[in-house]
What we know:
2 copies of one chain form a homodimer. By secondary structure, the first copy, chain A, is of the alpha+beta class. Chain A is built from 9 helices and 4 strands, in the order βαβααββαααααα.
Amino acid sequence: MTIIITAFERSPDGGRGLARDTRVRWALEEVGQPYDVRPMSFAAMKEPTHLARQPFGQIPTFEDGDLVLFETGAIVLHLAGRHAGLLPDDANARARAIAWMFAAVNTVEPPILERETARLLERDASWYEQRLPHVEGRVRHRLKQLSERLADADWLDGAFSAGDLMMVSVLLRLKSSGMLDDYPNLAAYLARGEARPAYRRAFAAQRAIFTTAQKTEI
Amino acid sequence: MTIIITAFERSPDGGRGLARDTRVRWALEEVGQPYDVRPMSFAAMKEPTHLARQPFGQIPTFEDGDLVLFETGAIVLHLAGRHAGLLPDDANARARAIAWMFAAVNTVEPPILERETARLLERDASWYEQRLPHVEGRVRHRLKQLSERLADADWLDGAFSAGDLMMVSVLLRLKSSGMLDDYPNLAAYLARGEARPAYRRAFAAQRAIFTTAQKTEI
């Protein structure tokens, strides 16, 4: 039974790896599980078949036999629980790695998403220029705290874990912003994540869909 | 060894149960584990002792012998994995319940937090009145999707689970907004959560700290 994930047929990020299927692809590569991709159009994502899998009409989803899952964090955690490579063996260390997964999506990502929302949906609003520094201040506040905790370690808590996979994925959203330049240890942490062979395979695979889609158009 | 959690010495919500320690108290009550509370002042939350436990200077934290955890979702999941009462036995159903935990904190809560951030930090900004309907539109978009998925079920996926505990906790943030009135099944879902004996004990316990702190001041 092959694992099937859904991904954007044409990712709005132009293949820069920011769509959330990259996180799931990365986890699958880290644990060495093959998978197939079902590319979804924006229209198909709003149809009942997909909403049955993903009530919020998003990608990715994950299918493995009878199991249908949504939410990237839950998919990564499911894979980490079934296969070696993403969580330490020690029970306490596992719980701490899972804490970093939640910290990535619930503490560090929200202000970053708020910044993206502003840039995507409020760019033409009268308040955009005036408000952006406030939003970026909230992002910097979290980056400073994360930078202080990471200090000169390679990963957040011992060896690379699903917590780092999720945190690196969240920080990737800021890569083009220049904001990470003020936190050299976070920039280096991001680079370490991107240098992992599993990440590189995941990135290439999501990029290939985009490139193929572009060629089809021409 | 008694479990110790941290909570606000004086919760900014005035004891309405919105501080995140209520989520952990609720989980502890559902699984029948006693706990002690270490109340924290805002100043103490920024000190190295607390930052070692919680790198973002927030509450709650969770200590159980050698294990120190932060992030409410991770604490609730840790408790759910060690004690009966918060996750189904079937492996696939467990994975789906965990998906709802992540959906609560990563899909439904972010626009709700954005609304709270606007109300707390941008109320005096020139754009506040004009921007708020946009933010509330994003909240309603998620509420509509959640309402459609819940339909006439009691809980999100079979029996009450940690996924419902987290989702009800997120929706509680909207209780005073009136926004849930447009989604009667979500309002009823919230009421079912609040009616659980474990939630009522958790709510009373966090409220007691606030009441005691107020009496001390007088």
